[in-house]
Amino acid sequence: MGTGRFIQRQTPSWIWSWLKWILGQLLESPGEQQTEITRRQYPEMPFYRIDTQLEEDIPLDDIGSIDKLRQYGERLAERTDWEAILASQALPYRIGKENTQWKQYKQPAS
Fold first, then answer.
1. Are 35 and 100 in contact (CB under 8 A)?
2. Are strands 5-6 and 53-54 parallel, antiparallel or unpaired?
3. Does 91 fall in a domain?
4. Of 5, 9, 38, 50, which residue is least crowded by CB atoms under 10 Å?
5. Per the structure, how many domains does the chain have?
């Protein structure tokens, strides 16, 4: 289960925005690494990454956004075919050789 990601669509224009962008890129790497390592070590095991794209940037320590995050989670849960995942038949979140990067398996926010 992922925590959701926000994709910055603007090119950074000054030093602080560049630093935030670089930090964001560095934080994405471990998730991609975990996905690739798990898929490589357990190729026969059905492996799912359930995650959504956030419509806005929500800092990890922003307790004022808990209701927004809950809404994201509820919308994702409603769209997810849990029975198909438990039966190893769901394709949208299933990781394979061709979709180990977040941009390939993410689900839209709405």
1. yes
2. parallel
3. yes
4. 9
5. 1
Say if 101 falls within a structural domain.
yes
Q: How many CB atoms lie within 10 A of CB 52?
A: 21
Report pLDDT digits (tens) over 14-50.
Answer: 788 778 777 776 766 677 778 888 888 888 888 888 8
* Residue 76 burial class via C-beta count within 10 angstroms: exposed 0-12, middle 13-18, buried 19 and up: buried
DSSP codes, the chain:
----EE---SPP-SHHHHHHHHHHHHHHHHHHHHHHHHHHH-TTS--B---BEESS---TT-GGGHHHHHHHHHHHHHH--HHHHHTT---TTB--TT--SHHHH-B---
C-alpha to C-alpha distance for 103 and 99, rounded to whole angstroms: 8
Q: Give every CB contact of residue 8 below 8 A, 6+ residues apart in sequence.
A: 21, 24, 57
